[in-house]
Amino acid sequence: MFKFTCKVCKHELPTSKFSVSTKVNKAGESKDYVDSTCMVCRRRAYLAKPGKKDIHRQGTKNWYKDNPEKAKSQRLKQYGLDLDGYNALRTKQKYCCAVCNKHENDVAQGRAKTPATALHVDHDHVTGKVRGLLCTNCNTILGKCYDDVKILKQAVNYLKDTL
Fold this sequence. Notes:
Layout: E1 3-5, E2 12-14, E3 18-24, E4 30-38, H1 39-48, H2 52-66, H3 68-76, H4 83-92, E5 120-123, E6 130-134, H5 136-144, H6 149-162
Antiparallel strand pairs: 1-2, 3-4, 5-6
């Protein structure tokens, strides 16, 4: 595999990190060439132009709204899941949060538009291993406690002592 050096960031990267453009000469002949700036630097430069960030943000919002299944599938990839794997977990958990056992139709959904996206993938931040699906509230609790059992036990003891 060939590697190129980006003229902006100076990193040596595989060719897959560079766009391929086509130039047409005066004779009408086209020729492909690899851009000298990597995709990350090109994007950064594009978004640095006045107004482009807002245009991009709005376009992204519209794409997520118009393509909810693709958007969900894209987010699941970071956990090594696809939609089938996610739905298998939902079925295994009987469509309920793994902590509070609330059904996905009854949980506070946050930004989720449908019950099918109401349960969040819970994973170990060290190993990346998927542990299950949680509602927004339970997922937030674990995150705020840094997945630390000691902190959670102290919180339980605190509640017992003050109720």
